[in-house]
Amino acid sequence: MNRRDALTTVALAGAAIAAASGPAKADAPASTLDRIKKNGVLRVAVIVGQEPYFHKDLATNEWSGACIDMAKDIAGKLGAKLETLESTWGNQILDLQADKVDLAFAVNPTPERALVIDFSTPILVHSFTVITKKGFAKPQTWAELNKPEVKIAVDIGSTHETIARRYCPKATILGFKNRDEAILAVATGRADCNVSLAVLSVSTLKKNPNLGDLAIPRPLLTLPTNMGIRAESDRRYKDFLSAWADYNRSMGQTREWMLKGFEAVGLTADDLPAEVQF
Questions:
Q1: pLDDT in tens, 159-206
Q2: Fewest CB within 10 angstroms: 25, 67, 80, 107, which?
Q3: Do 216 and 198 touch, CB atoms closer than 8 A?
């Protein structure tokens, strides 16, 4: 081997070692928990018109609701201030993946979502219900809705859509950008009914009692609702949120936050069907 070949070999070997070692550890992105503590900010997805979870005062642009109270409590324990990003049920998962928010509330842990994000332990367990338009017979079972002539309005990308397509595959499923548009479809007669979580349906009918009627078809379908976070190898943030969820649920604090959210739309515990669990 001549001198030029030897120098070339040494240079290639050095490049290979550098490539194998990868970037310096200091350049590695911080975990969510580290970043929240460093920046002093907790970014949370919020959704318009989803009482008791979220309520936006259109005059002041101030947010309130059960999930806002929860988010403030979490932020306080992390020594951070709360920032909100307006989203939808369907988009908040994308917002997590895009690193626009650090936390999404009221996320149902489906297997498909578990492939792209992570979850805390449950905050609550909810039942799925149906809001029917005036004059439409209240269904006693999901099978009664599973007919081509039945039009079901749902918000695209939500678990409401998943339930409708799973239990009423023969029905005509009408997808809308958000739940407000799906509810409007029922109000205007474009759809016969809307599938929603019980807490959302009860709140909607309280605000607009002339919209229709509440039905809780059988079999009773329940699903836990959790906090969604980005998937990462550092488990501290997930473990913290899970401990927070378990503690507040067992101590009855979660129930108090939910009842406070319901009170904002004129509902009390006595107004809620037995199937509404929290």
A1: 899 999 999 999 999 999 989 999 999 999 999 999 998 888 998 998
A2: 25
A3: yes
Distance of alpha carbon 14 from alpha carbon 96, whole angstroms: 39
Reported in sequence order, the residue ranges of 95-216 that DSSP labels E, i.e. its strands, are 104-107, 117-119, 124-133, 151-155, 172-176, 193-197, 212-215
| SS3 at position 82 | strand
Instruction: Give the per-residue SS3 of 28-50.
Output: CCCCHHHHHHHHCEEEEEEECCE
Task: Answer whether the bond into residue 29 is a cis peptide, omega within 30°.
Answer: no
Gap between the Cα atoms of 246 and 217, Å rounded: 29
Give the chain as a 3 state SS string. CCHHHHHHHHHHHHHHHHHHHCCCHHHCCCCHHHHHHHHCEEEEEEECCECCCEEECCCCCCEECHHHHHHHHHHHHCCCEEEEEEECCCCHHHHHHCCCCCEEEEECCCHHHHCCEEECCCCEEEEEEEEEECCCCCCCEHHHHCCCCCEEEEECCCHHHHHHHHHCCCCEEEEECCHHHHHHHHHCCCCCEEEEEHHHHHHHHHHCCCCEEEECCECCCEEEEEEEEECCCCCHHHHHHHHHHHHHHHCCHHHHHHHHHHHCCCCCHHHCCCCCCC
Query: In which element (H, E) is residue 3 found?
Result: helix 3-21
- The number of C-alpha atoms within 13 Å of 255 and in the hemisphere containing its C-beta is 10
pLDDT in tens, 128-151: 999 999 999 999 999 999 999 999
